[in-house]
Structure formats: structure tokens, C-alpha cells
Amino acid sequence: LKQQYQQSTPIQLPALTAAQAMAKIDLLPLKPEAKKQILSDYNGNKVRLVEITLWDNYAEDGDIVEFSIGSFALTVPILHKKKSFVVPLPIGVNTVNVKGIRDGGGGITAAVKTSSGALAFPLMRVGEVIQLPIL
After folding, report:
1. How far is CA 42 from CA 28, 63, 71, 83, in A?
2. Which of 3, 60, 88, 93 has the fewest CB atoms in 10 Å of its CB?
3. Residue 91 neighbours by CB distance under 10 Å
4. Secondary structure of residue 73 in the 3-state scheme
């Protein structure tokens, strides 16, 4: 199932305007120098910013995942309330790694919003990594 998921058609995420991107970068729980680097990379056309909206689509039990690409990593608790954040995707890179960090019980469950609706992740274990294909 996970292999089929990773080989599925890449998902389309909502596009951001430059103003939205700058506001979203400011909201990231990162050090100021990391935010400055992301903004510099964005302005230099080295990365595009994709917005990911994540929520727990099953039982809110303390699951946590990490989104990563290259040196960027963001750890996110998964709640029933949808949470949106941006991820800097280097030009030419079309996947975001999602790693299971904490399982509150029964497996790590989550879903993301795409342009065509919700996409549920396959059930994950701690330490497991899936690749989210992005257009």
C-alpha cells in the first residue's frame, strides 16, 4: 500500500502569492536566520513554497510527523484541527519526505488537503518515511 501511495499521481497543492508566501514564512517555528534563508532562496528562485494543510483524520492521540526536504525539517503535531504551513521545495524536486516521529496509539494517521480534496496518508509507524509526490 505504501509503495502504491508513493507511486501515485503527484498531488497539486494550492499556489501562494508572494505576499502569502512571506506571511507564511514568518509563521514557521524556525530561527530568524533559517526564515531569512528560505526567503532569500524563494526570492532567488531556488525554491518554490508549497502550502501543506494537515490534520488527524482518525483519532487525535498525539501523533507527530516531520516534513523534510534536504536540510529543511519541520516537526508537526497532528490534530483534528487543520493546520497549514509552508515547505520550501527546491526547484526540480517534487517530493516531500514525511517521517513518523510519535505514535499516540494505533499507528500514525493523517491527511493533507490537495487542490482536488483530501488525501489520507497510509497508516505509518514511528521512524517510517513516506514520500509525498507534489506537482
Report:
1. 15, 30, 15, 22
2. 3
3. 9
4. strand
